[in-house]
Design brief:
This protein is α/β, with parallel strands linked by helices. It has helices at about 15-30, 40-50, 75-80, 85-90, 105-110, 125-135, and strands at about 5-15, 35-40, 60-65, 95-100, 115-120.
Length: about 140
């Protein structure tokens, strides 16, 4: 049975190589997305998004964003994301991904207009299945 992937493209932004690898293996194993973009820093993720300003159809539908990263953390990414052109901001939705158990992190993430939900690491089959089952109200149709 050939099933359609849930998303055309997703991006994982995480400084931890093992966490990126786990996310990639689970996304591929679950056929969650046709294409996976892996970025090791908030800066490289922002640069990638900005490079697609004139091709919004190529932007990722979902961005899985780690909170704890050196230089620019996930919240710094969100601050910079807010400054990106609207064509970028309205295409992608963000899911914060963290091993943090801090209630402050959860509250801060959930209080951000761009964050759809907060997920604890790792990005595994159960979390991907939950996203598929509950849907994403902000997800734009690819058609």
């Amino acid at each position: 049975m050939n099933t359609q992937p849930y998303c055309k493209k997703i991006m994982v932004i995480d400084d931890n190589e093992i966490d990126r690898y786990i996310a990639q293996m689970n996304v591929e194993g679950e056929e969650f997305a046709t294409e996976i973009i892996l970025k090791e820093s908030a800066k490289s993720g922002l640069e990638y998004l900005l490079s697609l300003e004139n091709n919004p159809e190529d932007l990722p539908e979902i961005i899985f964003l780690d909170i704890r990263m050196p230089d620019i953390d996930g919240f710094g990414f969100l601050d910079e994301y807010n400054k990106l052109p609207e064509v970028i901001r309205k295409k992608s939705i963000i899911m914060m991904l963290s091993s943090s158990l801090s209630p402050d992190d959860h509250e801060r993430a959930n209080g951000n207009e761009y964050v759809n939900r907060f997920l604890t690491k790792p990005l595994d089959k159960k979390k991907l299945d939950e996203i598929k089952a509950t849907g994403i109200s902000m997800l734009k149709d690819a058609a």
